[in-house]
Amino acid sequence: MNETNPSVTEADLHAYADGQLPETARARIEAFLADNPDEAAMLAEWQAQNGAIRSLFAGYEKAKDTDPLLVAPPRAVSSGPKRWAIAASALLVFTLGALSGHYGPALLEKPELQLAGSETLPKQAETAFTVYAAEVRHPVEVFADEEAHLATWLGKRLAIQNLKIPNLQPLGFKLVGGRLLPVDGRPGAMFMYENQAGERLTVLVGRNTENSTTSFRFASSGNIETFYWIDGELGYAVTGEISRETLREVAEECYKQFPS
Fold it and tell me: Does domain 62-260 have CATH number 3.30.200.100?
């Protein structure tokens, strides 16, 4: 990405925007930004988006003893880490056309290891949506009239006790059904929903044992939007050809209903 200064990676810029860089590394990034106004403008936009989402989800702030610190920088750990309902500090707008490079923030000390598991999730969610949402007769394996069986079956395959399928009817989306599908080579689940206008969205759930950090991000590919987050050993992604605002509301509702 940064041909004039290959020592500054996109992961470095995301980490800087999220306040995850140590003070000793910030000066190097700031010097780079001073010489690269386009990257500086892009980074400012990321920070503005972070602030907007932080404000949006402030009412759902929760605390859990095992949660990592997401909003405050590392030096504030002793003040009592808190977990935002969706990790606002990590929210970024991505384009899936840039998937050939790693585009997530560096949330751990070794970003190249951190990104390997979580950043495959939005692409897999987009692929599942593209393949199955267009199906007329066979969009799912088990339809909504067997919801209890669907939850038990997929919960067992994903090793999730008492898996709850989100109820999105208050938001205008009725469950179509679900299916088993691979996510990073392991059993994963996809739930499909549809509104009265015939618009569909999918909710993907997969195991993510390499990553225990909660994070929240957007990914875009044409008209398809994906809103995804990692919570402990589970990754979730909501995908659809609907507005980001609607997708955000759906993701927020899913987050509240899924186990944490």
Answer: yes
Q: In whole angstroms, what is the distance from residue 95 CA to residue 203 CA?
A: 19
Q: How many residues does the chain have?
A: 260
Under 8 Å CB-to-CB from 180, ≥6 apart: which residues? Answer: 141, 153, 154, 157, 187, 188, 189
Q: Alpha-carbon Rg of the chain, whole angstroms? A: 19
Is residue 203 a contact partner of residue 254, using CB atoms and an 8 Å limit?
yes
Place of tokens 């997530």: 104
130 in Cβ contact with 223 (< 8 Å): no
3 state SS of 199: coil
Residues of the chain with pLDDT under 50: 1-4, 66, 69-118
Can you give the pLDDT at residue 2?
Answer: 46
Contact 169, 253 (CB under 8 A): no
Neighbours of 216 (CB within 10 A): 25
Q: How far is C-alpha 164 from the geometric centre of its chain's CA atoms?
A: 19
- Lookup: tokens for 192: 């499909």
pLDDT (0 to 100) of residue 240: 96
Burial class of 171 by CB neighbour count within 10 A (0 to 12, 13 to 18, 19+): middle
pLDDT at 239: 97
Instruction: Collect contacts of 139-142 with beta carbons under 8 A, ≥24 apart.
Output: 139/176, 139/177, 139/192, 139/200, 140/176, 140/177, 140/178, 140/179, 140/190, 140/192, 141/177, 141/178, 141/179, 141/180, 142/177, 142/178, 142/179
pLDDT at 206: 92
CB-CB contact of 210 with 119 (8 Å): no
Q: How confident is the model at residue 108, as a pLDDT?
A: 29
| pLDDT score at 61 | 56
Q: Strand locations in the chain, DSSP E? A: 93-95, 142-143, 174-183, 186-194, 200-207, 215-221, 224-231, 234-240
